[in-house]
Batch of 2 targets.
Target 1
Amino acid sequence: MSKLVDLCKVLRSKNAGPLTLTIDVMFENKDNYERVVNSGALNAQTVSRLYDVDEKDVQIIEYGIVDTIKVTFPRKLVSGSVMDNDVYGCQLHRPIANIEIN
Amino acid sequence: MRIIALNGALGYGFPEDSLDRAIAKGVDLIGADCGSSDPGPHYLGSGQYGFTYEALKRDLDVGITKALENKVPFVMGSAGLAGGKPHLAIIRDIVLEIAEEKNLSFKLALIHTELDKDYVKAKLEAGKVIPLGDQIELTEQSIEDSIRIVGQAGTEPFIKALEEGAEVILAGRACDTAIFASLPIMKGYPTGLAFHMAKIVECGALCAIPAGLDVVSAQLEDDGFILEPGNPERRCTVDRVAAHTLYVQSKPFYIYEPDGFADLTESEYEQFDDRSVKVTKSKFKEADTKTIKIEGAILAGYRSICIAGSNEQLFIDSLEDLIANTKDYVAENLHGSATTDDYTLNIRVYGGNKEEADNIDIACAKVGLVIDVVAKTEAIAKLVSSTARGWIMHFDYSGRKSTAGNLAFPYSPSEHNLGPVYEWSAYHLIEVDDFAETYDIEYRTIGGEV
């Protein structure tokens, strides 16, 4: 078992507009990319639990051309709203970092 | 045709040498994106512009001067970050100042994209508003209460201004892509390639290694476009360019535009030479319905904050309870000057979190607090934050030995009024029959001899 963060070279989050968060998980090589994709561990159900969003709203998009998995879902707090902690959304990647990959 | 983008955001600066090197290989348009929704709703709500006057002037000066020297248009979108009326006005004034100082002559086009509230209300009434999420509901009241609403212009007004011979085009809120894709589309270049090119260059040299706020150019060929950074120390690589295509996009294969979407599912990337990448096979699919993305901002209240720290582990251990009882204490001690409906009290804790404790050396544990209040008036915000501050400062938690006070304040005064706070009130699509409903173009002749 390895943690997701130890298998990827980039793990970044950012707004895609104020309502949407998008996380890019980029891998150094096809092996790690395919290992994570095939493990099925980075899935909508897990993301839904970690970020407290509806599973149906979570998109996991495989972008094999650059060995990247994109995770996109609605922000729970709209960027810049009174209770928001992270206007740009660039420190919201951590919850998925420790997902265990077979 | 060659399109040159100054940098990722006007006001960040760029090496002039990079621009000169890019221009030396040919130029048909110099463009710059000035906007983003990333920094939040403050700018649209307050009417303040992003960056500084001096930084914007420096970038505009170089960009416009070089464009005029080379007799090619200078195109800028999303003035002053948010692209509303006051934002476009300040950029216009900066450009007029530059023109006067340098004795420049040119035809100026100002593309206004702030929308009339009645227009947006009519769209809502007609069922022509499409939400992009369920977090913000657009209502007649929220439109009325919005301080301003802007529409992200597509290519149409830029193409019109170019056709009218405008040499400097300054736009309010606009799609990043429209700045760079309009001229190629006007000249008959394939729309899918034009938008894909524009989506990459609007961030400047972020698609290069090393990535940076710097100049990038795109050479448009019949079957694709070739990206090359202006700065010889940077190079574009297939990985970097393909990866950049997915940056801050919710989906990597589609770029949504007012009149359709670019389909990148079959796009191909090849290393053209050591420093440049060629992109081919990006397509465009026209949409049945034309849409414009709108952004609105609304006043949420007035903010007062207090920043403080603690070095006491016992205090940190008691924080969860302390935060809960601070909220109760404040609510009970406002003595009729405000009710809990009048404010939001949010105590933000930085560090010291027990769940993260494995990363913290307990011997030097530190925690930072931001007592954050947003209230319907500035006076209530200050009252609530100072009441909460006093309570936390002197709270007698279990086992307390540092009885002189619980908080280290870095600033005097300890409370700071941050003024009005805005929230997004709209981030929706509206269906339009004719894009001309959503913009006005104002032309001006600047200087003596045009």
Target 2
Amino acid sequence: MIAEVGFGALIVAFIVAIYGIVAAVYGARRHMEPWLESGRRAMLLTWPLITLSVVCLVSLLVSGHYEVQYVYNVTSNFMPLYLKITALWGGQAGSLVFWSWLMAAFASAVTLRKWERDREFLPWVIVVTLVTLAFFLGLVIFVENPFVRFWQMPDGRQAVAMFAPRGAIPLVPMDGRGLNPLLRHPGMILHPPMLYLGFVSFVIPYAFGVAALITGRTDDRWIRITRRWTLVAWLFLSLGLILGSRWAYDVLGWGGYWGWDPVEIAAFMPWLSGTAFLHSVMIQEKRGLFKRWNMILVILTYALVIFGTFLTRSGVLSSVHAFAQSAIGPLFFGFIALTFAASMGLLLYRWNDLRSEGVMTSLLSREALFLLNNLLFMGILVVCFWGVIYPLISEIVTGQKVTVGPSYYERSTGPLFAALLLLMGIAPLSAWGHSTVKTLGRALWKPLVASVLVVIGLWLSGVRAWSALLAFWLVALVTLVTLYEYYRAVVARHRRTGENYLLALWNLAGRNRRRYGGYIIHLGVVLMALGIIGIELFQTETQGTVQPGGSIRLGDYTMLFQRLDVFDTQDGRNVARAVVSVFKGDRFVGELHPRRDFFYDSQQTMTIPGVRSTMEDDFYVILVDWQSSAQGITFKVYHNPLVNWLWLGGLVFILGTLVAAWPDREGVPARARASQTLVTQRVKP
Amino acid sequence: MSGKVLRVFPSPLTVVLGIVLSLVLVGIVAGWASAQQPTPSDDEVNAIAKTMYCPVCENVPLDVCPTQACAQWRELIRQKLAEGWTEQQIKDYFVAQYGDRVLGEPPRRGLHWLVYVLPPLSFLVGVLILVNVFRNMRRPKEIAMSPGAAIQAAPSGDDPYVQQLEEELRRRERGD
């Protein structure tokens, strides 16, 4: 019964979405208010309907209804309650329902707020979001239905169907197969939802962009309306990526945080184009330039969002994340092609209307440097896209699959990331409109000299690798420039208003959250860069096989193997857990427990490292093998310098995004008031 | 006398036996000598395995892959290293057995050159576009024309009030 209700709610939501599209298009074309209102209400109805379906699916998951195929595939009796709930997005069908649910929530939030203010755009925003929603609901209903059940046919065969075939009786397995072990982690609560929230919320700026194209509004209004949406989308996507990296570092047991896996890149690509978009919209807002480019970026970001979901969900690329393979690839591909072509068609239709309003006067102006930033982000995006897609091309053309591994990405993107850091050091000091070498030099020379002194200090302390020196110089430059910017502004404000320095800083950041939030983000990026430099350039590793009492040495650290415990747990795992003591020099610094978990239900193993973590470095121990060697237990040991700065930088980065995206208490009502007054004025005459 | 000589000269059977014996001895000595070479360490094996992938565990480098099959591959690498093979010979051996996909990057030949050529080429195209944009933007003729263009760019049927509002809002943005 629950399954029928859940499926029924999805079908009704799908029909309502289709109706909403028709009503909104008709209402907008004919300027008929009742139809528009009807379309809007249809939009608002989708969320409660999908919510009902989600509630049904979660209740099936939690109560162990293993006759439902999805429940059987992603849960088992052993799993704790929180994992049974998160299993909603642990498999393909469920995660598509979850995607649709978030999409409906975001689209509803847009139409509930500011309906009066943005009435010109909103019918088309409804159309775009509902088309996306209808596509996902269609996939769920017709291809990947999470409510299908097992049936025993009269002739003894088993069948999978939504409704009972003639003469069949329900088949209820005693236990499920359980979630993929890689996903049985607290990270499962946050990482996938954050990525999905990021994906889904990027649909909103795209929808407004398309609405602006359709209605012929060629100014920056759509950008200003969606600025906060874009930042929120970016925040979620960044959070999703950072949490995913941390999860990989903690669980996947390869000593790293980022493996350039196609599914990681799938989430990274919309982040790249989204970051380029966040910067380039400022050029349009401040200077009225590059309207076409902003449209291209937002269309590209939307296409990459759907492409990212496609990569994860279609099974077209095999990767460590490829636990969700199915035959929905062609449908996704068709949808991406169709929406991309339609959006680009619209853009070409408005091409001449979207001319720049101003001119660029200086190669060193902020807008010129932002364009360079966009070029670098696009460069990284091309490297990523090409690396992900090339194995498919090779397979199609030559019949042979190839691997495009981390070395390709690191070599190709390294210089581009370095150039981005350099720009982060220079661009904040340049002015909008006009900057010369002289003005820029005047602002830059102090941080520049200080950063060179940092490098000299590093050289004197024994760092000789030129790549490390260059990387640390860039980090120092960006940090100093950013802090110098704060310092100059705080001192100026202190002089003008007499406020003390702390209050001046607070008020400064409060008055221009976007700018100073942006600087905090930059500081977060350099801290993250510090962690990345540490692990990429200075990571060392060794592997050895030892008996109890034996030790492995790596750098200053020594790991002493004490004993190995092998035992079964109540939640269906066989655990092999080593106890090792860690010494730094001669000093005992802690005990670690690297382990291997074998999951009986899914017959898979998982490697969980033991990590001794400080801001200086991580000592990271993996249990490699305890069965096949007569000489003892094999361990792999990594020394990861500075890696914790990556996580600290991630926190600062998120803080900065929150500051930049925090709603303006005074500004927004003032704007709403202003537009209301004008609307009243419009109506009166 | 000659009979004595003949007696001293070994019989054909003895010659064959002698050759076999000496071959066995040489084999033992050689084997002993090779056993004296240190067995390649895990780190030496991992240094090669790090850049290789087995066809089953896609996108998991061979050095950290936990499956039995990959452990066997690592043992095979160790064996080949012990036999004195170079890294390149070992990789060639695996490529011959399992195809190009075992390598961390496509080999630089034929179609695979696209992997390495296309990104820098497209970046170059991006640079050219950017240079073109800068040049066009800075042309005095364009500057003179731009206010007209700006007026043209505004939607013809736009409401003056809305335009006024937009302008006010933009000024606010610039002001902060």
